Amino acid sequence: MTAGLRNKYNHCIYSFDPNGGPPNTIMMRIADRKTEILVGKQEVADDAELAKFDAAVERLQALNLDIWDAIRRFDYPM
């Protein structure tokens, strides 16, 4: 799930609502399908999507802390 979010947000640009609404993502990667070629797919970055993003950041933070704990526990050089 984290890799999918990374790929999505690394391959898009953002459009912000001047009235304060949720931002949109605009996919800049070309998607070659059997019957069509897609580019510029737009999606709203609503609260549910931002919650996925926050959860991924929390998982990466926990992984980072686990790695640093292992480095200290096994006395790896730093």
TrEMBL record:
Domain of life, per UniProt, equals Bacteria
Q: What is this protein called?
A: Uncharacterized protein
Species of origin: Roseovarius gahaiensis
Organism lineage reads as:
Bacteria, Pseudomonadati, Pseudomonadota, Alphaproteobacteria, Rhodobacterales
